[in-house]
Write a structure and sequence with these properties.
CATH topology of the largest domain: Alpha-Beta Plaits
Largest sheet: 4 strands, mixed
Distance between the termini: 65 Å
Radius of gyration: 26 Å
Shape: elongated
Number of domains: 2
CATH architecture of the largest domain: 2-Layer Sandwich
Low-confidence stretches: 146-150
Number of helices: 4
CATH superfamily of the largest domain: Cation efflux protein, cytoplasmic domain
Order of helices and strands: HHEEEHEEHE
Length: 150
Amino acid sequence: MNGILECIKSAQFLIGLGVGFGFWLIVLVVRLICRATRGKYLKQLFKEDERGNFTITLEAIKSYLVFALKDFPSLSLDPGSVRLAEKEEGTALQFGVKFQLGGNVQESKNALYNRIESDLRNQLAIADLIKKIDIKIVDFTDKTSGEQEQ
């Protein structure tokens, strides 16, 4: 028993204990910072008015995007990238598209923005809930071969 007490009182043990404690403290702080800065993602949008409540789910918005992108042959939706992100300025609709080379990226992007903004306002009636649209090109495909560009 005396050997164990002497070992615990030794400088090497106390240094090791301090380093181990410091390491786990740093891990805890980093984890808390990451959790605090991580974006909040919504699974649905909720709107209340004088006639009742209206809810639209993320899955419904994905279905809408697939439908809307049918008018853009050079674009296709990456379904796993669709998100409703809670941001300081309001909710953002975020999604990724695959772009088929041979078209004009800027023209396609502008036309898609205009279409989605118009549909959010006129067809879906949720323009007041979505304050920002973030489109990300996740991949380019070759028009002739259909293969991904590296």
